[in-house]
User: Which sequence fits this backbone?
């Protein structure tokens, strides 16, 4: 069964074409600069054929039409005809409270998704554009929506509510939703597969550490809490986002700097985090180099703050779950930075973590158990694969609906 | 190797759709022209601007960089965003650079011009010579009658008004004026542009001053009248309107920001058109302009300024 996975942004569409359930990737690429000058599609086929095609792409629908043209072309294609695509899976950023799992996209579902636009005005509209375009281009092919927020819909009110007037939650649904849901779900499932223990039996903490970062507490197989909130700004320190901050400090800054909402938004989303503290870069590789090789104090401070915040969350979530069995690292930094993993895991013997620093050293992007056998808490690296989660969910949903 | 997407066109519908809005031209790159360029580019659209000489073009490019630096210093932008914004803007003194623009906006600085309509008409003619049949020509002017400008065009259905309010980078609304000749397609393209740069469209009928200029001019003139009658002073009048009606700026602060010379042009045009006393420039404004006190841009107007901030109120004693 061939499944096309789409991740539609405001001016780009990332895509992956999978053969399922074999999980083999037939083609992947990006439709970029939609509606802008210099638009192009970059396609990479499984046999290594790479191509870049340029031309005018006026909107998402035109981009997808060209993409389908490429996928069925003799020269760069992976399919014989369009009808060979059995289903399309879409990444949808915000599902609000309406979606707690992946769904078959119907007219009714689309109007429910449209109601979620207010919660993610930058991300959801382009996701929907992709859905509208596929509906018009491939009306007979089933589509599935996979939501970044869905996995965290199991959070109980005590973890998802903010302590602000309850009426604001009722009026605007202001609460914590969490993101990276597909990633937290995938790596926790995959880790349990590797160690051959049912996920429902474990208390798990998953650390998705990429340029955006979040951490989740998973108990009885369900998300109990996660660090991102109503927006992706809350929680851990990120490349350019501040993570947790005193709301009072923000209003104070707005007053002192005489800035409005737009600049404040840029301040906490783009000027803060690792780049804000270090003043060097938002890229952890640059920061590690500056801190460790050039002894740059601010880079060192940024790293210390970054690791400290993660450690604090691990402690808090362990207390919230009443224990910890499995700690998982994923995301660009979690998968590739042995330094970050070691900094988080050091001096944690009291916590039941006996980390194997030798095994950790130099490990990049591979599934691995990094704790010693005697360790009460298992520590693992599991590379994430959100596209594959979307393909698997799409397969599961259509098999259930159409069996 | 790069290939053309057209070879992979599986549907004719792509061709049939209206052309995309890929490039915007600006003719006259003063403060407003620069703001429109930066705003448009910050939304991912390519911009080309025309000014009088290549030296002037360089100067404008430098000024735009400074403007973005100020925004970065106030946390509104990142350095990489600045690079991306400037990379999408190209300037020239040659109209040919406008040839593949979808929309060209005339934004001349007219404060020192006597024959504004003729000058703008000449610009309209020059633009039309180089652009495609589907491209539209707009003026950012709010007090000039667009139908009159359009008369010099071969295809008059492409003319309309796209009026940005100052400062264009932050004001979320633009007025789009259809003149008698404007086609539906031209109007729709202008609205599409507004949508792409995240601005609310106020569609207004053709009348000098549209909505925004007529109302602000009346308020400023009446404020001068109140001042002259001695009812209150500049600061108190401003404060009354700011706090009393939740305006961001009081009428005198607003007048200084717009530029008092520019206000006179607006008022003269409106007075010429309507013949109503409320549009006749107040003697207070005339007096300041004659003395070269034009507002924020000269550092002196109703208030005195340093680095764009009010330092003291001085001018009242002389009024």
Assistant:
């Amino acid at each position: 069964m061939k499944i096309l996975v789409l991740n539609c942004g405001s001016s780009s569409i990332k895509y992956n074409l999978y053969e399922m359930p074999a999980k083999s990737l037939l083609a992947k690429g990006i439709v970029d600069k939609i509606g802008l000058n210099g638009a192009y599609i970059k396609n990479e086929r499984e046999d290594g054929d790479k191509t870049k095609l340029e031309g005018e792409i006026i909107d998402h629908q035109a981009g997808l039409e060209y993409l389908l043209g490429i996928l069925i072309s003799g020269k760069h294609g992976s399919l014989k005809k369009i009808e060979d695509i059995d289903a399309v899976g879409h990444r949808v950023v915000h599902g609000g409270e309406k979606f707690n799992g992946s769904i078959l996209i119907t007219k009714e579902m689309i109007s429910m998704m449209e109601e979620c636009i207010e919660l993610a005005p930058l991300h959801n509209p382009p996701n929907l554009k992709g859905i509208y375009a596929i509906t018009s281009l491939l009306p007979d092919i089933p589509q599935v929506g996979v939501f970044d927020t869905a996995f965290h819909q199991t959070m109980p009110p005590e973890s998802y509510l903010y302590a602000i007037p309850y009426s604001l939650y009722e009026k605007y649904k202001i609460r914590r939703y969490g993101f990276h849901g597909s990633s937290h779900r995938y790596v926790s499932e995959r880790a349990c597969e590797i160690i051959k223990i049912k996920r429902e039996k474990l208390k798990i903490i998953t650390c998705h550490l990429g340029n955006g970062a979040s951490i989740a507490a998973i108990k009885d197989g369900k998300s109990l809490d996660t660090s991102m909130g109503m927006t992706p700004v809350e929680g851990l320190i990120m490349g350019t986002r501040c993570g947790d901050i005193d709301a009072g400090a923000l209003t104070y800054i707005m007053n002192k700097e005489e800035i409005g909402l737009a600049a404040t938004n840029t301040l906490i989303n783009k000027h803060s985090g690792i780049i804000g503290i270090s003043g060097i870069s938002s890229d952890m590789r640059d920061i590690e180099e500056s801190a460790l090789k050039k002894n740059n104090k601010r880079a060192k401070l940024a790293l210390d703050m970054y690791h400290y915040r993660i450690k604090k969350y691990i402690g808090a979530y362990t207390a919230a779950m009443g224990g910890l069995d499995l700690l998982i690292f994923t995301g660009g930094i979690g998968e590739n930075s042995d330094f970050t993993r070691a900094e988080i895991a050091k001096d944690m013997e009291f916590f039941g973590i006996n980390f194997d620093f030798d095994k950790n050293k130099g490990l990049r992007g591979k599934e691995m158990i990094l704790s010693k056998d005697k360790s009460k808490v298992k520590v693992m690296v599991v590379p994430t694969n959100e596209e594959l989660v979307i393909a698997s969910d799409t397969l599961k949903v259509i098999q259930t609906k159409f069996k | 190797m790069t290939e053309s997407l057209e070879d992979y066109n599986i549907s004719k519908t792509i061709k049939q759709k209206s052309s995309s809005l890929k490039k915007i031209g600006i003719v006259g790159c003063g403060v407003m022209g620069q703001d429109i360029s930066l705003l448009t580019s910050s939304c991912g659209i390519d911009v080309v601007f025309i000014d009088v000489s290549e030296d002037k073009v360089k100067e404008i490019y430098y000024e735009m960089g400074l403007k973005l630096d100020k925004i970065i210093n106030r946390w509104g932008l990142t350095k990489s965003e600045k690079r991306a914004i400037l990379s999408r803007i190209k300037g020239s003194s040659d109209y040919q650079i406008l040839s593949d623009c979808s929309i060209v906006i005339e934004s001349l600085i007219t404060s020192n011009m006597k024959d504004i309509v003729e000058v703008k008409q000449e610009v309209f003619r020059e633009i039309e010579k180089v652009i495609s049949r589907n491209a539209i020509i707009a003026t950012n002017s709010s007090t000039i009658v667009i139908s009159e400008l359009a008369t010099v065009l071969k295809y008059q259905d492409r003319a309309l008004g796209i009026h940005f309010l100052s400062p264009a980078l932050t004001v979320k609304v633009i007025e789009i004026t259809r003149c008698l000749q404007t086609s539906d397609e031209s109007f729709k393209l202008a609205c599409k542009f507004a949508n792409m740069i995240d601005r609310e469209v106020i569609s207004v009928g053709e009348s000098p001053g549209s909505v925004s200029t007529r109302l602000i001019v009346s308020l400023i003139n009446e404020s001068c009248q109140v001042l002259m009658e001695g009812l209150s002073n500049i600061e108190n009048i401003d404060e009354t309107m700011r706090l009393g009606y939740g305006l961001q700026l009081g009428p005198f602060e607003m007048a200084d920001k717009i530029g008092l010379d520019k206000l006179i042009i607006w008022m003269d045009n409106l007075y010429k058109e309507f013949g109503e006393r409320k549009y006749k420039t107040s003697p207070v404004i005339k007096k300041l302009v004659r003395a070269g006190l034009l507002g924020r841009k000269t550092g002196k107007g109703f208030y005195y300024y340093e680095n764009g901030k009010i330092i003291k109120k001085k001018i009242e004693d002389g009024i």
